[in-house]
Amino acid sequence: MTALRPILMLLAVLLPATSARAQDARPAHIDYMLKCSGCHGADGSGSPDRGIPDFRGYVDGFGRTEAGRTYVMHVPGVVNSSLSDARIAAVMNYVVASFGAPATRSSVRPFTAEEVGRLRAVPVPDVVAYRREVAADLTRAGIPVAGYPWP
């Protein structure tokens, strides 16, 4: 067993690094499928009857304002994600490009790892209440927002 100790120590150091590199190399749509599609569906349709909004044609609206961008960094799937800030940015950019309204999604500034880290650090004690405020502001600005069944 003593002879195996150096090998085990080397594996303990290398395996997490290998896993992190594999995650960084993984395409954003794979992260979406692994981390988001369970609730939002492979097609972005969500499950409105279960409180999961439809992304299709709406999600880019949140990317158009600072408050909206802050909100999406505090949704349960992002808050509870094991992804790095860079991977979250890549997934958010994939979501906007894939499910945003065709006429407006290209106007959304891409998310960056630095921005994700900054926005995730902003305190949002009640994400449901914050979403209501952001959605009301977007609606007043003429930006469509998906329905949201949470009280």
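The above is record 1. Record 2 follows with the same two-line structure.
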Amino acid sequence: MRIDLHTHSHRSDGTDSPTELVRNAAQAGLDVVALTDHDATTGWQEALAAGDGLDVVVVPGIEISTTFQGESVHLLGYGFDPDHPPLVEELHRVLDGRDQRLPRILARLAEHGIEITEADVALQSGSAAASGRPHVADAMVAKGYIGHRDEAFQGWLNSRGKAYVGRYAAPLLETIRLLKAAGGSAVVAHPWSRGSDRVLTSAAFEELAAAGLDGIEADHVDHDDWSRRGLRDIARGLDLVVTGSSDYHGTGKSSAFHLGANLTDPAEYERLLGH
């Protein structure tokens, strides 16, 4: 059984519709795929319907923007009640934070001669729950300022970029508790990449496990062999599930993030669903 537990559709910053994503998952030979759009669950029903027609098990999920000890950490959630009021309220705060920073990002780009309007970004975000940095990057590509989304993050939109603007992110420990209260499972996404390795130490994972964390995404394109071994050791010591996934975004990321790039062991998948 081939299981990929981290993918994105155009309901956040991927380029496939939920239906296209599930169809591509079937073509990639996946038996199970989780739709984990950023901070939103709006693609669930479409993806589930597509899975029924293609004999692919679709796991409803999410990737929530959180913060821990001053660093950005992404948290994957699976199988929770999307209408659980406290969780819905927190996700609204996160999405509002994305929308509210957009004018400030565009103003900073304009200071450097890059003229992008909110309408330009809206053309790229389409069905997404909120407009984010990847959509700004796509607008920059569409207007001819850069050649690929990655260029925008390298020089403009990453945390050290000329046009970077911070936004609200949910507290990690509280978000784990919210997911658990909503009947779901919680897994830290790509924990030793993108700066989160500075705070996600062994001791930190003990704290997260005490709050209800279920697993660690160890097998990810951003993790080298040393990181994967270290994260597995931590997971083993805390009896946490180990997952693997692609973090697929369609054409929004390089081909290294192709569907099935990393997989979750079926026994670990069963453990995750049992939490």
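The chain has two domains: 3-90+168-274, 100-157.
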